[in-house]
Amino acid sequence: MAHIPDGVLSTPVLITGAVVTTGLLAAAIRRLDFDRIPQAAVLSAAFFIASLLSVPVGPSSVHLILNGLMGVILGWAAVPAIFVALIMQAVFFGYGGLLVLGVNTMNIALPALLCAALLGPALRRSDGRFSLIWGAVSGAVGVLLTGTLVSLCLGLSSADFLPAAKVVLATYTPLMIAEAAVTGFTLGFILKVAPELITIPE
Amino acid sequence: MQLTLIEKESRNDRLRQFDPRLRLITALLFAMTVVSLHLIPLLLLTLLLALGMAWWIGLSGSLLLKRLLVMEGFMIVLLVMLPFSVPGESLFTLGPFNASIEGVQRALQIVLRANAIVILLMALIGTLEPVVLGHALGQLRLPDKLIHLFLFTVRYIGVLFDEYRRLRLAMRARAFVAGSNRHTWRTFGWLVGMLLVRSLERSERILAAMKCRGFNGRLYLVKQNIWSRYDTLALLLSLSLSGTLLLLEQTL
User: Which A residues, 176 through 195, put their C-beta within 8 Å of a C-beta on chain B?
Assistant: First the structure.
């Protein structure tokens, strides 16, 4: 549900999304060393594969976004990684669309960057039970922010979308639960097994 | 894992003689045209056009349907809510709620638009090899680093998907069944973690191997796409088509 299709949003929202994404991409690409491209690409591919995972929550099942985790691990490189994954999902899987690519990237990448900036430092210092909790928090925050941004985009496009936007936001609840749980365990695992993965120097 | 939507053997690719850049530009042009249309008959026409294109290119119907169903989750929410949230002449009432004709129209517009664009997107661009798509994007002057990231990602999606399948097979061999419980979430968390850890190790090996071969931050494109007269002709054709659609929208 994080992928808004084409033809829904209004032009000002689309343009805002495109401008924000272009700015984020430009900043991120300047920071991305050619030496780090293979690493960013392999991790981006890993996230692409992980989003195919279908996680049962209660009676339904969800596909993870993992933007909180991406932010914490990739830092700024999460922006181009998300952009590339979204291009492929739109073109080969029919998730999302072409003109909304900017908005969709913004909705997923901004929370990733926020998670990296706000929760990354605390997470790196934590151990044991606390790394699990901070991991879960970053997973939940990533999804919550994405859901809020998606609903905002809908609501700002047209007042008629407001009820639909609320329903969309509500559908993020199961995703948030699954994402928090899986991200928590993933980061706990990584901190134990390969802590260098989340302490990569920028 | 195959990303391209068309089988290699069954590919009677009728668009092969055209430049991949033409397909990208046409898709963009068509998407911009469709989002500015409002009349239902015209939108229906564009949907039929997109379907015709998909059929002509040889996209399999069942695959297309499967991919479209994924998108409809979003559509259903809008379709159900819009008739009640747009004020206007009443079509029917459901308890205290009033469904308006204008709302149904809006919902229809959105569904038609979204489907037309996605079908055409998959038909025109989804049938390209991912690597060809990457090169075409590069020739359209997207930043070099982004293109490199794209090409590398495409390459490693295939590799990591095999790794993922191996891990899932190992889980199945140990009788893992996904449920809504702590055990499942922990297992999936570790699965994602393992995938990432192995990926990182792999990426270090890749970088070392590339440095051995003198990688200086540049992949050379083996095949340059050449823009021919036919491409210009096809572009003019699609330009006039979208012009006609916009004109019809204005006059009808």
Answer: 178, 181-190, 193-194
3-state DSSP percent of chain B in helix, strand and coil, to 5: 70, 5, 25
Average pLDDT score, chain A: 88
Give A140-174 pLDDT, tens digit per residue. 999 999 999 999 999 999 888 888 888 888 888 98
Residue A44 has what pLDDT? 86
- The token duo for B40 is 């239902």
Contact A81 B153 (CB under 8 A): yes
Q: State the Cα angle at A45 between B180 and A23, rounded to 5°.
A: 105
What is the reported pTM? 0.91
| ipTM, 2 dp | 0.89
> Which residues of chain B fall short of a pLDDT of 50?
none
Q: Which amino acid is at A155?
A: G
A and B: number of Cβ contacts within 8 A: 234
Tokens encoding A187: 């980061």
Structural domains of chain A sorted by starting position, each given as residue range(s) with its CATH number in brackets:
11-198 (1.10.1760.20)
d(CA A155, CA A101): 18
| Torsion B71-B74-B77-B80 (CA) sign | negative
Q: What is the DSSP code (8-state) at residue B89?
A: S
Q: Is A76 on the interface with B (CB under 8 A)?
A: no
Give per-residue pLDDT as tens, A117-130.
998 888 888 777 88
Eight-class DSSP state of B94 = E
Query: What letter would DSSP give residue A115?
Result: H
Cβ pair B121, A98 in contact under 8 A: yes
Chain A residues 46-75 with a CB less than 8 Å from chain B: 46, 48-50, 52-58, 66, 69, 73
**What are the distances in angstroms from CA B229 to CA A21, A112, B17?**
35, 45, 11
Q: Which residues of B touch A69 (CB under 8 A)?
A: 192
d(CA A155, CA A189): 39
Judged by DSSP in three states, A40 sits in: helix
Tell me which long-range contacts B98-105 makes (C-beta under 8 A, separation of at least 24): B103/A160, B105/B40
Structure tokens at A171: 């559908």
Q: Of B59, B67, B53, whose CA–CA distance to B12 is shortest?
A: B59
